[in-house]
Design brief:
transcription regulation (chains A, B); Arc Repressor Mutant, subunit A; WH-like_DNA-bd_sf (chains A, B); homodimer; 13 helices; elongated; two-stranded antiparallel ribbon; DNA-binding transcription factor activity (chains A, B); 231 residues; 3% strand; DNA binding (chains A, B); Four Helix Bundle (Hemerythrin (Met), subunit A); mainly alpha
């Protein structure tokens, strides 16, 4: 590698801004002091002095923590620490057009992993009422759609309901976020492929089958996705 | 509900800052204009004019996007859109002390779901070398640790290696983030409970068993966690 290449490598380094550093220091500070949700943060003046930074830089860092849902401004009480919305920032960046290909593939596999793993919690929490609702969804989808976007709509409806049935709101929201990525990758297929086990088959397994029979059904339902995974 | 209560309800509403709004508008703008990683953003002057905001507010919003890894500042080229680090902000907020209890429980279950679902990808990607490495880890853990923190260290080593074996870096990183939460909840148990299937049993299943036998083994390994899940 010549000096020319080295020069290019050096140019690639991005700037680390003051806000990056102050944000990190603030996060460390909050952890070290064992701040808990509801606790009031020190005043801006005290923070700028402790961190040795300007008010503008501090505000930039605080703004980031506000974005993460880690701090809130309350009337009269000022800034307090709050329980962060852990999926909020993930939602902001979940855009198939800007995420790199390797990560898109990872997310695709992550969703398959969740589908295969949720039988355990589903069998603990499923209710008769939920299964009836799922059946209604599956029956309304009886005709196999030829258009890819309809097929994805069906997937969202059906699998979304299954996630809801787990009673796990974080998982449900996470899956909703993963679907555009999934749809983006599946949309690239020319011919829609339907698994050997249909949505209505899955409902019947959920009604009468064991946890493991349901899981085997789900595997067959997703088989064409698994077949495409690279070693 | 009297006026008194209503008054309190109104106080609970947090301020929505200008930066919140400008950040949202910027995200929308980038999507609408189909910006792709590598594309240069318009100059600050143009953005402040288009959005009708002050330079300070714009900078605050841009700082947030920089935090999400969505924009980078490059020498000579200025700000360019980049592929976001999708787990970066999740990492910042994954702190068991500030996350609310319902979400902690959700994350606990999410990790169990991943463990149960990863057999499929693991069986596509596992190599002899990886299994040997996993076996080394399991053998070095032969004595059951009585102290909880040692037990968690073993869990991290062993299960972390399994995630690495899936070849899915996002999933691996995600699991690393979930572990402090898992550890936090498990730490509250007084007596460490060991599943009927040990780490070394899992290695042997991975060597000689089918995907489904491995999964059943994993289920038994995690059985005491599943038993505690509420209907």
């Amino acid at each position: 590698m010549g000096i020319g290449n080295l020069h290019i490598d050096i140019e690639k380094v991005s700037y680390k801004t003051m806000a990056d550093e102050v944000e990190m220091k603030l996060l460390e500070y909050l952890k070290k002091q064992s701040f808990k949700p509801g606790d009031a943060l020190p005043k801006e003046m005290e923070l700028t002095e402790a961190l040795g930074v300007s008010r503008n830089v501090l505000r930039e860092a605080l703004s980031r923590l506000r974005m993460l849902g880690m701090i809130e401004t309350k009337k009269r009480r000022g800034m307090v620490l709050s329980s962060p919305d852990i999926l909020g920032s993930l939602e902001r960046v979940m855009d198939p057009l800007i995420i790199d290909d390797a990560t898109l593939q990872d997310i695709f596999e992550l969703r398959l992993t969740l589908e295969m793993g949720l039988a355990d919690i589903l069998y603990i929490r499923k209710t008769k009422k939920d299964i009836e609702e799922l059946e209604k969804i599956a029956l309304s989808q009886k005709t196999t759609p030829t258009k890819q976007n309809f097929r994805i709509k069906h997937e969202v409806e059906f699998h979304g309901k299954i996630y809801q049935m787990t009673g796990n709101r974080t998982m449900q929201r996470f899956q909703t976020m993963l679907l555009p990525i999934f749809g983006h990758l599946v949309n690239e297929e020319k011919v829609p492929i339907v698994g050997k086990v249909s949505h209505i088959d899955l409902v019947n397994l959920l009604k009468n089958g064991t946890r493991e029979q349901f899981r085997e059904g789900m595997r067959k339902h997703l088989e064409h996705h698994f077949k495409k995974l690279k070693k």
